[in-house]
Amino acid sequence: MAIQPNSETPSAKPNEPAPPSAPEKPLPAPSGPAVIGRLTHQDIPAICALFKKVWDGYRGELPPEMLKTLVPTPLEFTSGMETVTYFAARKDNRFVGVVGVEVAHGSGHIVTLLVDPEQRRQGIARQLAQAALDWAHHANVNSVWVDPLAKFTAAQSLFRALGFTETGLLHRRMWNEDVRLFERVLDR
Ligand SMILES: CC(C)(COP(=O)(O)OP(=O)(O)OC[C@H]1O[C@@H](n2cnc3c(N)ncnc32)[C@H](O)[C@@H]1OP(=O)(O)O)[C@@H](O)C(=O)NCCC(=O)NCCS
After folding, report:
1. 35-185 belongs to which CATH class?
2. Is the shortest distance between the CB of 137 and ligand 1 below 6 Å?
3. 78 Cα to the center of ligand 1, angstroms
4. Helix ranges restricted to H, 26-123
5. What is the pTM of this model?
6. Which atom of ligand 1 is closest in space to residue 121's alpha carbon?
7. What torsion do the CA atoms of 158, 166, 129, 109 make, to the nearest 10 degrees?
8. Is any ligand 1 atom within 6 A of the Cβ of residue 146?
9. Backbone angles phi, psi at 42, to 5 degrees
10. What is the pLDDT of residues 66-113, one digit of tens each?
11. How many whole angstroms from 47 Cα to the centroid of ligand 1?
12. SS3 140
């Protein structure tokens, strides 16, 4: 196939492949304070993209079957919203974190908490977890529990910092991965 010389690269010779076009510039990381708000149905595609971005970073570290369940399709996420209440953190109108809390049997279960890797250690997860605790309090529950993978030590430090107590360890609970149990009993 004849390749046209690229008019913007005068040194390109005929029959030589054109130099690769400049890669698309990634958007600059959003800055400023994070704003926490309840997730709506129209946010679902962007939130699913955030799940994918976060969990793609764990390929090779977590079992593939687990990664599959951790990255929901928009349809799966939509059906999950029937029982789970989600709050998201936005910066410059981009989603940088999400938390999901499910209220059942008089207690709250934090089922999801994640923050964009580029936005960590700025207090976003703390804000999100606090939103989940406030929601659970508002829903009149007596305690909130969470079950991070034992290898997720950052999450465990976060829950301890938020007043959660470690109450147990489930061996090989999820695809051969140990899970730790944390609870926070709410003052009423
Ligand atoms: C865990 C996670 C949500 C923390 O998000 P984050 O926005 O960086 O956390 P914050 O900045 O709000 O941190 C709050 C506190 O948590 C603890 N913490 C957070 N990240 C930590 C880390 N890498 N190492 C040790 N402690 C950590 C600290 O006590 C921190 O307070 P400090 O910054 O004043 O020391 C994030 O690392 C993540 O998405 N991890 C992958 C998914 C995951 O583990 N989810 C939890 C499943 S239940």
Report:
1. alpha beta
2. no
3. 26
4. 44-56, 64-70, 74-80
5. 0.88
6. 11
7. 150
8. yes
9. -70, -15
10. 999 999 999 999 999 999 999 999 999 999 999 999 999 999 999 999
11. 19
12. coil
